[in-house]
């Protein structure tokens, strides 16, 4: 497995230069490193912030599972979407409301066909709310399909 987490990961993360705002590091409650977050008050409604995970070493014709922690905290905070480079127009994963402020786990299967996915984009869309944040942490890439549980 490949650790792509922000504090100690080995992956290449890049802010999108054509979006409306950047994701920023936020300290974890436990004090052991940081996660990436977009506070609810950044930008205007419907503005987007994109954080790209560049995947250079994926083998063609194999499958991977991208596992990550996410949190949508606050009322009407917005949307979190994940896009794969070879399917830029349709998100492969989307969440627009947290039941509470807890961290949850997202999983995405990445199938490598003739085209290799070389980029995963985490996109935050600003909502109407003024409090809370959208956060992403503990991004890990493992070989094979995602486990069911």
TrEMBL record:
Domain of life of the organism in this record?
Answer: Eukaryota
* Transmembrane region(s): none
Q: Name one GO cellular component term.
A: membrane
Q: Boundaries of each MAM domain copy?
A: 2-148
Cross-referenced SUPFAM superfamilies, in alphabetical order? Concanavalin A-like lectins/glucanases
What is the protein named? EGFL6 protein
**Species assigned in the record:** Ibidorhyncha struthersii
What is the phylogenetic placement of the source species in the record? Eukaryota, Metazoa, Chordata, Craniata, Vertebrata
């Amino acid at each position: 497995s490949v650790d792509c987490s922000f504090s100690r990961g080995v992956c290449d993360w890049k802010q999108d230069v054509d979006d409306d705002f950047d994701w920023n590091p936020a300290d974890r409650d436990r004090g052991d490193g940081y996660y990436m977050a977009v506070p609810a008050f950044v930008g205007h409604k419907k503005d987007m912030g994109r954080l790209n995970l560049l995947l250079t070493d994926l083998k063609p014709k194999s499958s991977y599972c991208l596992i990550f922690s996410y949190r949508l905290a606050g009322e009407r905070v917005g949307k979190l979407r994940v896009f794969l480079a070879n399917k830029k127009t349709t998100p492969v994963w989307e969440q627009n409301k947290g039941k509470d402020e807890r961290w949850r786990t997202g999983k995405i299967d990445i199938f490598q066909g003739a085209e290799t996915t070389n980029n995963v984009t985490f996109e935050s869309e600003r909502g109407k709310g003024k409090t809370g944040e959208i956060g992403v942490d503990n991004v890990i890439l493992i070989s094979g399909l995602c486990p069911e549980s």
